[in-house]
Amino acid sequence: MERSIQELNNRVTHLVKTGTISNKIVTNGTIHTVQVSQFNGYEVHNNVPMYGTWGVTSTPPVGSQIITLSGYGAGNNKFVIATHDVNTHPQKMSQGETQIYDANKQSLYLSVNGIIITAQNEYEIKLGDNTIFTINKDGISIDANVSITGALKVSDSITATGDVTGNNISLSSHIHSVTAAPGETGAPQ
Fold first, then answer.
1. Which of 46-60, 67-81, 103-117 has the lowest mean pLDDT?
2. What pLDDT shows up at residue 142?
3. 104 & 34 share domain
4. Per-residue confidence band for 173, with pLDDT thresholds at 50, 70 and 90
5. Residue 42 placed within a domain
6. Which residues form the Bacteriophage Mu Gp45 N-terminal domain (predicted)?
7. 7 shares its domain with 80
């Protein structure tokens, strides 16, 4: 009887535990697996499945905190149900905000003031395999037809490989009447 109570106590103790990620996460399978260190490194589990929410996946840095759940309270069938990294977790967010972030300080931040996208070197928007919009240190590149409603204010320059039309006037083929002499000007060169 005493052994049964001790066994039950051990299973309850091991049902939900905290720990850390102690090696790089393996991401080449149908589910990510991780090495988990628990009880200050006295207990190490390899190839532990790491579950997340459908549509969102991540590979937290080594050293991130985790919570494991062990079916039946046995250590041989545990899986990760939550992760957290104090070094990269965003701070000072307002109630109701959401942020998707990574270890490189890149993020998609749904703030109370609007949507803020932070990228290290380049930001792209793709449709299928086609890159339509790119922002990097060299500027903004748009590989699509552009339609602007309202005024366009340019403080630097715009380069277009196709025709630019404003108020139904073509930049590459419009002509002007000449009042001082007979005829018209030629198209822009």
1. 67-81
2. 92
3. no
4. confident
5. yes
6. 26-85
7. yes
| 89 within some domain | no
Q: 189 pLDDT exceeds 80?
A: no
138 domain residue, yes or no: yes
CATH classification of the domain holding 28: 2.40.50.230
In the block, which residue shows the tokens 């929410």?
Answer: 53
Residue 156 lies in a domain: yes
Domain containing 143 equals 98-170
Least confident window among 60-64, 83-87, 105-109, 177-181: 177-181
Neighbours of 106 (CB within 10 A): 14
